[in-house]
Design goal:
alpha/beta, five-stranded mixed sheet, 312 residues, three-stranded antiparallel sheet
């Protein structure tokens, strides 16, 4: 069969007939007369050289060919509808939509409270559900972004290293600082590279084995560090440091937020460590969706306000 000779309206008729299994109901579904739908069925039978629907005691039943065509025709029509039909407007003031975010605990502490404050004011019945990221620096696969998560927020690679179907937007950059308790036995207001290497550390580590970035950098300077505790999340690190002589390397904003409450020293890192780059990721299938666009705009607006507040 030559696709160029196929009237696409026949595919709509085929879909309606396969769903309804009744010519009259299929005609009603497409706002056609019954004779028009009967004519469409006759044309479909000639086009595919197959009866497509057979009359039985239980009603019309699809032939094997019709059954095999149903899924691909439905998928093709779904894509055409998504591309051509007018999308319903998104009204955040009345929407009851739930957005699923993939995020680490840093995002939950630094960004999520301000986002929810703005969200509650603009969209009181919208819900945010946060799923925990299983890896601190690895983006989720495109399939997960397409089906499981509306957005991913974390320390992800630059856009050029992502899959082509994954869109991204940079939110802010975060430098590394060191934290130690104020009453630390040997660290008082400054931290040398020698002290840094000699101290016992608590580290956020997502890799199963092998050296981390900081260990590699220290090795280049002829040093090695002792990690007394590996933890999978940032949130507990300042609390561990506050009650011990362990030190840690953490994002500056997190340190600034918790240092006054936990009586921590916040010290410049004595060695150059690549900064954290907070980014937002989403799949291309959601790029033009009005609700997604609204949420992304709200996230960027929130991030910029927090960025300005941190800089001032």
């Amino acid at each position: 069969m030559n696709l160029q000779s196929l009237d696409l309206n026949l595919l709509l008729a085929f879909e309606a007939l396969m769903i309804e299994r009744n010519v009259t109901r299929a005609a009603r579904r497409l706002n056609l007369s019954q004779p028009a739908m009967s004519n469409a069925l006759a044309r479909l039978r000639r086009t595919f050289d197959d009866p497509l629907l057979l009359r039985t005691r239980e009603g019309l039943k699809p032939t094997p060919l019709a059954q095999s065509l149903l899924a691909p025709v439905a998928a093709a029509l779904s894509q055409l509808r998504a591309a051509l039909e007018k999308k319903p407007a998104f009204d955040p003031t009345v929407s009851q939509r739930t957005f699923r975010l993939l995020a680490n605990d840093y995002v939950e502490i630094l960004l999520l409270p301000a986002l929810l404050h703005k969200l509650h004011a603009a969209a009181p019945t919208v819900t945010i559900r946060v799923d925990r990221s299983s890896n601190l620096f690895q983006p989720p696969p495109p399939a997960a972004l397409a089906s499981l998560h509306d957005l991913a927020l974390g320390f992800f690679p630059d856009a050029l290293s992502l899959e082509s179907s994954t869109h991204s937007e940079f939110l802010w950059q975060e430098k590394n600082v060191c934290i130690a308790r104020r009453a630390h036995a040997s660290i008082r207001g400054r931290l040398t590279l020698k002290q840094y290497a000699a101290a016992s550390h608590v580290a956020v580590f997502y890799k199963s084995d092998g050296p981390g970035v900081i260990d590699t950098i220290l090795a280049q300077h002829g040093y090695a560090r002792r990690v007394a505790a590996f933890v999978p999340h940032f949130a507990g690190v300042p609390f561990i440091v506050a009650s011990s002589d362990l030190i840690a390397t953490v994002p500056e904003r997190l340190a600034a937020l918790l240092a006054p409450m936990l009586m921590l020293q916040v010290l410049p890192a004595p060695v150059a460590i690549p900064p954290f780059r907070l980014a937002m990721l989403w799949h291309e299938r959601n790029d033009r969706d009005a609700a997604h666009s609204w949420l992304r705009h709200l996230l960027v607006e929130t991030a910029m306000e927090l960025k300005d507040a941190h800089a001032s």
